[in-house]
Design goal:
It is a single chain. The protein has about 90 residues and is an alpha+beta fold. It is built from 2 helices and 5 strands, in the order βαββαββ.
Length: about 90
């Protein structure tokens, strides 16, 4: 089990970014959440097997969102406890 915290920068708010990420998550066995940050970035945290998390993040990077993403920062975090499914949070 692995977990990742990802920050997306660019024109990532107001373009359906979080909704699209949630739709992509449906195709993977991952748990976690995605949210807008006050500084204009989007934060994602997800947890699952490496064989699910890594392709999930790759699919986001290669989706229709890629034109909105200027930079991505990914870092490992402890697996998420008590999180069910994948959600958009405030």
């Amino acid at each position: 089990m692995i977990a990742r915290q990802v920050f997306y920068e660019g024109r990532v708010q107001g373009v359906g970014f979080r909704f699209t990420v949630k739709q992509i998550a449906r195709g993977f066995d991952v748990t976690g959440w995605v949210r807008n940050l006050a500084d204009g970035r989007v934060e994602l945290q997800c947890s699952g097997e490496s064989s699910e998390v890594e392709p999930f993040l790759e699919d986001i990077a290669e989706s229709e969102l890629k034109g909105h993403i200027r930079s991505v920062t990914v870092q490992p975090i402890p697996p998420l406890d008590g999180v069910r499914g994948f959600q958009i949070v405030a």
